[in-house]
Write a structure and sequence with these properties.
Bound molecules: S-adenosylmethionine
Oligomer: single chain
Low-confidence stretches: none
CATH architecture of the largest domain: 3-Layer(aba) Sandwich
Strand content: 15-25%
Largest sheet: 7 strands, mixed
CATH class of the largest domain: Alpha Beta
Number of domains: 2
CATH topology of the largest domain: Rossmann fold
Shape: globular
Helix content: 25-40%
CATH superfamily of the largest domain: Vaccinia Virus protein VP39
Radius of gyration: 20 Å
Structural class: alpha/beta
Number of strands: 7
Number of helices: 10
């Protein structure tokens, strides 16, 4: 068993990383660029797999995440580095890599996701592979339908329009395929693996660490009146008929840069 296996208690990053690793073709001595690296899922695992003959650079825009990753690393796996870099504006002197990976990354490629993928592809060696994951369009659809139904009952037109726009902003698997294709990658694989997020009614949903940390906050932003938002969401949380099972779509985008002809 690898010493740096993915953390089993993590119910979000780890299942996404597992889907990423299903598509990633790693080899001993590979050089890897990991974008939106966070505190090292799956960079530590990947670094162990490529061994001391390889190089892994994991970048994140958050200095806090980089500090956390470095403190987990201490002096281990010295061929793995964590640096604070914005993946949307890679330094021109960054070399090309055998593999580029990004777990839970594509949603942060805003505002122009295709441009970011093109920028990453420019740092992929000919014959190299890129594998990215993100929660694609369809994620938590049953919950959004339930929220929309509650908004409709109350005649909240503006809030419904904002919710619709929020949902539509999530990229689809098909869009992802077009971006990889447009960036000149081939042997493209696009897959979606459903992931059930366990929750119960009431406070369990409203204070769910994953949902409240991002997804539900975005719903609250659809409201000018936060007391009304609380009321709507309380109502939703108490009647989860048709909402459960709550499913995310783990979307994997994988493709290869054509090898250069000699
Ligand atoms: C959902 S976390 C994923 C982290 C890690 N890959 C994992 O699977 O746990 C997304 C990470 O992307 C980082 N991020 C967001 N925008 C970024 C950007 N423009 N450049 C680099 N990292 C970014 C965030 O700081 C955060 O750590």
């Amino acid at each position: 068993m690898p010493r740096w296996s993915l953390p089993q208690h993590d119910y979000w990053s780890t299942p996404f990383a597992e889907s990423l690793l299903r598509h990633l073709d790693l080899f001993l001595g590979a050089t890897v660029l990991d974008v939106a690296g966070g505190h090292g899922i799956p960079a530590f695992y990947v670094a162990e797999q490529v061994g001391s003959g390889g190089q892994v650079l994991s970048i994140d825009v958050s200095a806090g995440q980089v500090t956390r990753a470095r403190s987990i690393q201490s002096s281990q796996l010295p061929w793995l580095r964590f640096e604070c870099v914005d993946m949307r504006a890679l330094p021109a002197d960054l070399p090309a890599y055998d593999r580029i990976i990004g777990n839970l990354s594509v949603m942060f490629f805003r505002p122009n996701r295709f441009e970011v993928i093109q920028g990453l592809a420019a740092h992929l060696k000919p014959g190299g592979q890129m594998v990215l994951t993100f929660p694609s369009l369809g994620t938590f659809d049953s919950l959004w339908r339930r929220v929309d139904q509650e908004m409709a009952t109350l005649g909240l037109l503006t809030e419904r329009r904002r919710l619709e726009a929020y949902i539509a902003e999530r990229p689809s698997a098909e869009e992802g395929r077009e971006w990889l294709d447009g960036a000149g990658l081939h042997r493209i694989e696009v897959a979606e693996y459903p992931l059930e997020v366990a929750t119960g009614p009431g406070q369990e949903l409203l204070h769910h660490p994953l949902l409240r940390g991002g997804f539900l906050d975005d719903v609250f932003e659809c409201f000018d009146d936060q007391l009304l938002a609380e009321r709507v969401m309380k109502q939703v949380s108490e009647d989860l008929d048709g909402v459960l099972p709550l499913l995310a779509q783990r979307c994997v985008l994988a493709g290869w840069k054509p090898a250069s002809r000699t």
